[in-house]
Structures are given as structure tokens and as C-alpha cells.
């Protein structure tokens, strides 16, 4: 008999249904993972609410791309991963009890991480963004938007010897940034007041590096203003709701570099995931305080809504099975 599994399906805008579906089988060069959990990403929000190009129903387990669990079957030719290995994956249908990934899209988790949740994709994404940022000791680094990604980048930049100015709307986010090493915090309320505050902190020089980690027009406008002459603007926010306008005159005048820091090369994504495993294992990074809300698979819709609405103290939601 064909084995089945439970999976969440986006059946209509704002509606996730839990279905019983066929459990996937690994093909050649693939592994199947019995998932322990999956993180919820801010990029889930707009597809969940419905986009003009969306079609319904979505794939079983679709939207879930931050999974981790234990390998329970391998396909032909797999040599680097074995049944029983605990792994983080870069697969894309992990709002389900099982997912299948290519052998080179999983990283084995060391025993030191046993029992700990590990949404590897966003952690790897943060490592790749940090590398693209080229942050150096002594620099002023503004991070616009302190959620999960902004907090991780705050820690990495601080650990590299930079001085971080954290800019975010909620006081709880600013407090989080302080806990993760930010030298200064600025409330994200008034555009021109923020610019003047950053000028005061930096002696009018503004920042050598600015990371925009929101994915909206105003934070992008603000981030460009905060970059000093010859600095670098790093766009880490996921801009998915349409075209953007930028002040090319201002970018040209200041001679800034602009890095779109989302990596789509699978080899680069895998490199980031490996670096994330090492950073957490060695204690360079402790993401545990960021996993603030946990939900069952039945409650994926509620978890995505919380990711959108950000109740008090919210940083990141995990779906655990």
C-alpha cells in the first residue's frame, strides 16, 4: 500500500487546509526527510494572502522552505547522507510531515545540535547576506528592520567588530537588537528624524554599510539616505509586491555600491547553510532566543498571520511536528 502523510495546502487566499496525501519517494540522488519542523518566513505572507499570479490549490507542503528533520530513505547513488542522519534542508515543500531534497541540498547537523530546532535556510541566507555586505571592523553599519534576519545580522556584524545602529518600529525589536550587540538604536518613526539621528551618531559621516531588511518602499528609501559617500547599500529585504523606485541621483552623487543580497545559486545557498551550522555549533551565533512562537502543523495559517501581524514579542514562528 502507498504510504501517506499530512501536509498543509494553500487552497485559497488566507486558507490553509490540512490534507492526507501520498508520501513522496526519493529519486536518484535524493533523500527523504521525516521533518521535525519548519520555520515560517515573511515571504510566506503575500502568497498566503493571494497575489495576482497565484493559482490554487498550491502544492502539498508548499511555502515551507525552512525544514529540518531526520533522513528516513535515500535514493540510488546517494553517498554523503545516510538514513538516520539529522539534517537541515533547502527543500521547498516542508509544511508537511515529509519532504524530498537533492543530496546536495541538505547539510548533516552535528550531535551538538541534537534536540535544537534548526531552520537552516534563513540562517544560511543571513550568512550569505553578511558575506555580500563586506562588513569590516570599526565601520558604522545601519540595519533597517530588526526581525529574525536583522537580529542575526546585528550579531554577525557586531562579532566582526562593526558598530551597529539598529532601526526598527517596535521597542521590543530595538531591545532585541541591543541584546544581540547593537551599539545604538533608533526608533523607525519619522524619515528625516532618523537621518538626523544617524548623522549625530556618526559625526555627519553616515554609514559605511546599510542593510535594508524589511522589503518595503519606505525602508529602502531610508536605507539609501543613510549610506555615506562611497558606502554600500545591501538589500536583504525580500521585495515581492511589485516595482520599486529609487533615487538614482542620490545613489550616483554619493557613489555608493548596491548589492542585492538574495542568493539563488544552489551552491551558494548550500555554502551559507554550512556556514550557519558551523556558526551555531561553535557558539558564534545563538538563534534560540529568536524562536519565539511555535505552532502545530494544523495551525500553519495562524503562524503565517502572526508573522504578518507580529504580536508583542514576536520574532519568528516555527511549525513543529
TrEMBL record:
Keywords, comma-separated and alphabetical: Metal-binding, Oxidoreductase, Zinc
Cofactor list: Zn(2+)
CDD domains hit by this protein: Zn_ADH9
Domain Enoyl reductase (ER): 11-319
Protein name: Threonine dehydrogenase
Family: Belongs to the zinc-containing alcohol dehydrogenase family.
GO molecular function terms listed in the Swiss-Prot or TrEMBL record: oxidoreductase activity, acting on the CH-OH group of donors, NAD or NADP as acceptor; zinc ion binding
Record carries keyword Metal-binding: yes
Keyword flag Zinc: yes
Pfam family, one: ADH_N
